[in-house]
Amino acid sequence: MSSEETTNETSETSDGRPRPDDLVLTEACVSRLLQLAAEETAATRGDTKKEPNPPLLRIAVDGGGCSGFQYAFSLDADAGVGPRDFIFEKKGARVVVDDVSFEFLKGATVDYVEEMIKSSFAIAENPNSDGSCGCGVSFAAK
């Protein structure tokens, strides 16, 4: 990890609340990321040439969508972490956000949602959003 990377253990203030600028990772999000990490470790077991590389959840904010901005989620390996990325960790589960996207995500809650038609990571609450579309993928910035 380079000295310019910022690692933020998702910790709490003295009164038990998350710090206001951190991403809040729900238990469902943490559980799913740890499950994916375990699957990656099991898949590489026995392959002495390949070292387990638990996935990181990368969240980005892109222009587009019906409300102006949209969330993009992807699973990355450690090699995908850059010097201007913020890393948030809770119980070993890690989420990475680039510095530009982080300005739109400060204080947001990252969740893993299971519904009848899909299961996915999602932004459950974003204090920087002025509104969102019906599907929750895009939002209008404040």
Low-confidence stretches: 1-18
Specify the overall morphology.
globular
- Return the average pLDDT rounded to an integer: 78
* CATH class descriptor name: Mainly Beta
- Assigned CATH architecture: Sandwich
Count up the helices. 2
Strand runs, count: 10
Q: How is the biggest beta sheet arranged? A: 7 strands, mixed
Structural class: alpha/beta
CATH third-tier fold name: Hypothetical Protein Aq_1857, Chain: A
How are the elements arranged and paired?
Blueprint: E1 6-9, E2 24-25, H1 27-44, E3 56-63, E4 69-76, E5 85-90, E6 93-98, H2 99-105, E7 109-114, E8 119-125, E9 129-132, E10 138-141
Parallel strand pairs: 1-5, 2-7, 3-6
Antiparallel strand pairs: 3-4, 4-10, 5-6, 7-8, 9-10
Q: Can you give me a brief rundown of this structure?
A:
With 142 residues, the chain is of the alpha/beta class.
